[in-house]
3-dehydroquinate dehydratase
Amino acid sequence: MATVQQLAAGPTPARPRSINGARDVSMDVDASPSHAPSKCLNKFGSGPQKGDTRIVVIVYGEGQDKIVSVFADVLGKPFGIKSGFKEVSHADQGVVVGIAASHAQSDIASRDKDLVVAIHAHCVNLGMPPDLHLSSECDYEFLYTEAPFFRRDLSRFISFTLGQINHHETLMAKPRTYFISTTFPDVSAALPNLDILTVGADAVEIRVDLLQEPLGDGNHSAIPSLSYIGQQVMLLRQRTELPIIFTTRCTRENGRFPMENPELYYEYLYRAIQWGVEYVDVELWLPEDIRQRLFQRRGNSRIMSAFHDFSGTFRWPSTHAQQVYAESRKYADIIKMITIINDHHENFELEYFRSKMRAEYPDSPPFSGVNMGETGQFSRTLNRVFTPITHPLLPIVAAPGQMSASEINAALALLGQLPKKTIWGITSPSFRSCIPQGPFYEKCFNELGLPHHFAVVERQPNNITSMEAWCNQKNFGGAYLSPPISWTSLLKHSPFFASLNQGKGPELTEAARVIGTVDTIVVKTGSSSSASSAPPSIPSSPRNYDAFNNYTPGASILPANTSLVLDNASWRGILSALTRDLAPSAYFGRSAVVLASSGDDAASVMFALRALRIGKIYTVGFRTPSALAREGPAIEPFNSLESLQRARMVGDDAAPFVIVSALGPEKSNLVGMLIRVFGANGRGGSNNTRKVFLDLADTAGIRKGGDPSIVAEQSGFSAYGSADTAAFTTVETLRLLVGQNVPYSFVRLASGRSLF
């Protein structure tokens, strides 16, 4: 398990280099490297999208008109109230329209579906179930509690249903994905431990057939009602940021849902789509017209075509297996086939089937194939798409032979498929007190059952070559760098990095190339490379010799077919923090102010703002890196009082909407002054959206003046601190380094900052 050489309390954000008073003078983003790295064309997932551009109409309950303004706030749009769908016209484009439920009843069925997207917003405090006519007629339905109200739940719901975010593309880019099933009769029983339960999981399955809806006489309903299920989905989504899989498993396939009425399945599964559930499990035995209708009306949800066989007579090499696969792929975004087996060799038959189907149907959806029972556990280590996992804290396993993420990783390690690696946290003396992530990584590795060794080490300022001793090792597993390092300087001063990829240098992601700095080094292993289950010990100072036993500094001793990828995870942490309570569309075309002491400190911020399609960025205190100036939004520096005054005098919608500060705590007075300048009206233009302030400064520093976050709140901003950004960045860094998911909520919990 993980061992740590440097102990500290938990993950906290690393300050930009200039804040700490130590800056590597050689790290010029605009410098030309002597070796140009190769571009890494594999982009992880998709950034924010424009999505559905129809007019959003919110149908609200009695006395709940304020929910319309919250929807508008999250979307970054103005809102208005109308008395019916007949009053909504093209003139309302760009406005969130609210219609009372009592008024919507009469003409919702005749609305122009090409013009509007109708969302039924129902407060469960008013009673359940919601109006059934409105539930069935609206495109989507959002269930919420009045107190407490989870704004991030609404942001996630509206961002997903309108197609502004895409979980599926992101997950399918991972080398392995897992999902955990909440096998509780009541989801609320899982909530206290959900942060721990979901470590290693990429999605959470709600087993609808296992839910037990209590009746007044002490018994339980044979089939839980849509009203009860809706509240269960709401509770689960309020407590996890992971995608949800909605499953109604039938009695024939080890579930409890009756099979007599297939239309009941359609009613429940389509309602899950309306609730904005990311994945809907559709069993293959259902009539084709039901599967086809669900697939055609799935919106942004994804359909998992599910086939289970518990007979013990199913054979992977059979014609029947190929027919099942061919039928599944008709209406599926993911094909899932799970069977029970009797002999170990059937695991290898599954692998042959997997490769054969991939060759015969190269354009098929991703395939998840698993054998059940203890004999089939080996197949769970080989499956790479949504492998079902369990956890010791769950009351029962969802299927025979299920393993936890920790057990699967331990098995992979024993099989030599997950060799022990050394992962480094590379920092510098000035950052010594800012990198207490050692114990946190140890917690994550232990919880995931990873065999890796983690250690925090220090490099000397202006001595990039010292990194070669850690990175040029046969069992090097990757590293995070804090402070980040300019990739041009890395190639210029390190013979080892410059010699990689036959002299082309390491691979470079688009983010690292444009931002100019690297905070994560990822090890990429080719399929033909052999993985040793017993790697050699780690030399404290690697010595490299050529064929004639001559010492050759910088020569690579990495295993064959292994390359290094330079990446930047910080910008995704910033992006996630900015979109936690707001949909991406709230930022589209708006203006921003970025304060920093150097272009290096500001680059990740500006790249994140570019991903959010910010229209214009005002800069304070730095020169914009040339790559961002060429490829980003319009840039205007505040270099005089006149330029500041011009920005104040523009129209409301063109005024700065978001302010991000990467300045140190000693410059709080300057940050507070700018917040007051642009926060006079407290709102983001003609609509009701609150402006946003993100402070990236280390809160441990001594502030000169008031806390900018407090000033921002007093000036009408929504304020976010560096802890949020650091937690999201840690999630991304772990995904890059070990390929597994550690939820944001667990990062905050392990840091001593629980969300609830």
